[in-house]
C-alpha cells in the first residue's frame, strides 16, 4: 500500500477539455488509489488549460485556467498532458513545458507529424520524456511495441487502417452499395465525420499517422510532407462491384515500408491511398470505425493490432498509459524511449514503388478496342493479370459502350502513370474511371 504522506505527489497539468481531456481528468480523479499504487506516488491534478473558463465544464472552477503559459510554468507541475491541438498553440505549450524539464504526453498527431525532430531535441536537451502513443490509432498500442517490444528486431513493413471515419464510409459502401456522398452523409449524421471532413476523407489524418509510424519503425525522421497521399472521394460504388467480383474489398491504407533495391540500398516508403484488399487478408474484415495495424518484422513475423482507433474513452486509455509511464519515470528517476533516427534512410518517391493496380475505363464497344488497350500496357512493360469487360446501356436500354477493368501484376507507379496517360489519349477510351492499387498479394 502506498503511503501518500511519504512520497512526493506527481503534479499533472491537462491542456484541453474536449472528449479526450474530460475523460483523462475523470480517470485521474476516479482511479487515484490504483494509479498511485502503479506509479509509486499519487497523481495530483494541478490545473486544466481551457479556452473558456466557466462553471459548466464538469471540473472545479478553481482548476480551470485560460493562461496555458502560466500553467505549464508552475513549479508543482511535473507532467503536461497536451490534448488541445491543433499544431499551434500546442507546439508552443509543449516546447515551453519541455524547456522547463517537464515530461509531456500528447495525442496531437498533426503536431508530431511535422515537429517530431524539434520536440525530440527539446526533450533530449531537458532530459525529459515525450510520449505520444495516443497520436496513432487511439487505444490500440502501436507506438510502444515498435519502440520497445520490437527494439531488437528489424521492421520491414507497417500497414493499416488508421482512420475510423474513412473506414466507416468505405465499410458502408461495401455493405449497402451506397455511393460515396450518401455514405459520407450517414457518417456525418452519426457523428463519425466532422462538419468539415477534409482531413479524414482526403487522407491528411492518415498521412500524419503514417509519418509517425514510419519514423519509429525505420529509425528515420519522416514528416507528413514525405507521405504520398490520396483520399477516398473518387471511390465509386462501381469500384466496389468490381472489387467484389475480384474477391476484394476497398480500404484506405497507410503503408510504411522498407524498400531494398538490387544493390542492397535501403529507402523508406510512406504512403496513404485507397486500395483493393483480398477478402482473406486480415485488414479486409476490419469494418466500421475500427482501426487495425499489421506489423511485419524479420524475426517476429506478422503481428496485428486491432481495436477502437478514436473516441474519448479509447484515446484517453492510451493517454493514461503514457501518463503512468511518465509519472513512474519521475518517481524512479528513469527515462522513456528517446528518438531513434540513426538510420537516416532516404525517402523513396512514389514513382519507384512497385504495386499491383486496378484500372477501370469506359471504352467504345467495337472490335479491336481490347487489343489497343492491352498494347499500351505492353509498351511500358506493365503485365496484365486479369481483364473484365462488360457492356453498358443508356437510360433507354440501348448499348452505349463498354466498361473494361484491368488488373495488373506488380509494376512501378511511374510505369502505370504513363500507361494511364496514354490510355486517356486513345480515341477508343472515353474516360478513365478509377485507378486503385491492389495490396495484400504477392503476385
From TrEMBL:
Positions annotated as active site in the UniProt record: 209 (proton donor)
Binding site for L-homoserine: 194
UniProt catalytic activity: L-homoserine + NADP(+) = L-aspartate 4-semialdehyde + NADPH + H(+); L-homoserine + NAD(+) = L-aspartate 4-semialdehyde + NADH + H(+)
Pathway field: Amino-acid biosynthesis; L-threonine biosynthesis; L-threonine from L-aspartate: step 3/5; Amino-acid biosynthesis; L-methionine biosynthesis via de novo pathway; L-homoserine from L-aspartate: step 3/3
Keywords: Amino-acid biosynthesis, Methionine biosynthesis, NADP, Oxidoreductase, Sodium, Threonine biosynthesis
Domain of life where this protein originates: Bacteria
EC identifiers of the protein: 1.1.1.3
Pfam families in the cross-refs: ACT, Homoserine_dh, NAD_binding_3
Binding residue positions for NADPH: 109
Name this polypeptide is given: Homoserine dehydrogenase
GO biological process terms, semicolon-separated: methionine biosynthetic process; threonine biosynthetic process
PROSITE patterns attached to this UniProt entry: ACT, HOMOSER_DHGENASE
Keyword NADP: yes
Binding site for NADP(+): 15-22
Limits of the ACT domain: 358-437
Function: Catalyzes the conversion of L-aspartate-beta-semialdehyde (L-Asa) to L-homoserine (L-Hse), the third step in the biosynthesis of threonine and methionine from aspartate.
Cofactor: a metal cation
CDD domains: ACT_HSDH-Hom (cd04881)
Family matches, as InterPro entries: ACT-like_dom_sf, ACT_dom, Asp/hSer_DH_NAD-bd, HDH, HDH_cat, HDH_CS, NAD(P)-bd_dom_sf
Molecular function GO labels: homoserine dehydrogenase activity; NADP binding
Family membership: Belongs to the homoserine dehydrogenase family.
Amino acid at each position: 500500500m502506498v503511503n501518500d504522506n511519504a512520497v512526493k505527489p506527481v503534479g499533472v497539468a491537462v491542456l484541453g477539455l474536449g472528449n479526450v481531456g474530460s475523460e483523462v481528468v475523470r480517470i485521474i480523479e476516479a482511479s487515484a488509489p490504483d494509479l498511485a499504487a502503479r506509479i509509486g506516488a499519487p497523481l495530483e491534478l494541478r490545473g486544466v488549460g481551457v479556452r473558456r473558463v466557466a462553471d459548466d465544464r464538469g471540473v472545479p472552477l478553481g482548476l480551470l485556467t485560460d493562461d496555458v503559459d502560466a500553467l505549464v510554468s508552475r513549479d508543482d507541475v511535473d507532467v503536461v498532458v497536451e490534448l488541445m491541438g491543433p499544431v499551434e498553440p500546442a507546439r508552443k505549450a509543449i516546447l515551453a513545458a519541455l524547456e522547463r524539464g517537464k515530461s509531456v504526453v500528447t495525442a496531437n498527431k498533426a503536431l508530431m507529424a511535422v515537429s517530431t525532430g524539434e520536440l525530440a531535441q527539446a526533450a533530449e536537451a531537458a532530459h525529459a520524456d515525450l510520449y505520444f502513443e495516443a497520436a496513432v490509432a487511439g487505444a490500440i498500442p502501436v507506438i510502444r511495441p515498435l519502440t520497445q517490444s520490437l527494439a531488437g528486431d528489424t521492421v520491414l513493413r507497417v500497414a493499416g487502417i488508421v482512420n475510423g471515419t474513412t473506414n466507416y464510409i468505405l465499410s458502408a459502401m461495401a455493405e449497402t452499395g451506397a455511393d460515396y456522398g450518401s455514405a459520407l452523409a450517414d457518417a456525418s449524421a452519426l457523428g463519425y465525420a466532422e462538419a468539415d471532413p477534409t482531413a479524414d476523407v482526403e487522407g491528411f489524418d492518415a498521412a500524419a499517422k503514417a509519418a509517425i509510424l514510419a519514423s519509429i519503425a525505420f529509425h528515420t525522421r519522416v514528416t507528413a510532407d514525405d507521405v504520398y497521399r490520396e483520399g477516398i472521394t473518387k471511390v465509386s460504388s462501381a469500384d466496389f462491384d468490381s472489387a467484389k467480383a475480384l474477391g476484394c474489398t476497398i480500404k484506405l491504407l497507410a503503408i510504411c515500408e522498407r524498400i531494398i533495391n538490387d544493390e542492397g540500398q535501403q529507402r523508406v516508403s510512406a504512403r496513404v491511398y485507397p486500395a483493393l484488399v483480398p477478402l482473406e487478408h486480415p485488414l479486409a474484415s476490419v469494418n466500421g470505425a475500427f482501426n487495425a495495424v499489421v506489423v511485419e518484422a524479420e524475426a517476429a513475423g506478422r503481428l496485428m493490432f486491432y481495436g477502437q482507433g478514436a473516441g474519448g474513452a479509447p484515446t484517453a486509455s492510451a493517454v493514461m498509459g503514457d501518463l503512468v509511464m511518465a509519472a513512474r519515470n519521475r518517481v524512479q528517476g528513469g527515462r522513456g524511449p528517446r528518438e531513434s533516427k540513426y538510420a537516416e534512410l532516404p525517402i523513396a518517391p512514389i514513382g519507384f514503388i512497385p504495386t499491383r493496380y486496378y484500372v477501370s475505363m469506359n471504352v467504345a464497344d467495337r472490335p479491336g478496342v481490347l487489343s489497343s488497350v492491352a498494347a499500351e500496357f505492353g509498351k511500358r512493360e506493365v503485365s496484365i493479370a486479369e481483364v473484365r469487360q462488360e457492356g453498358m446501356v443508356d437510360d433507354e436500354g440501348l448499348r452505349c459502350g463498354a466498361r473494361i477493368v484491368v488488373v495488373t501484376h506488380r509494376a512501378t507507379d511511374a510505369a502505370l502513370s504513363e500507361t494511364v496517360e496514354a490510355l486517356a489519349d486513345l480515341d477508343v477510351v472515353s474516360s478513365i474511371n478509377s485507378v486503385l492499387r491492389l495490396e495484400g498479394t504477392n503476385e
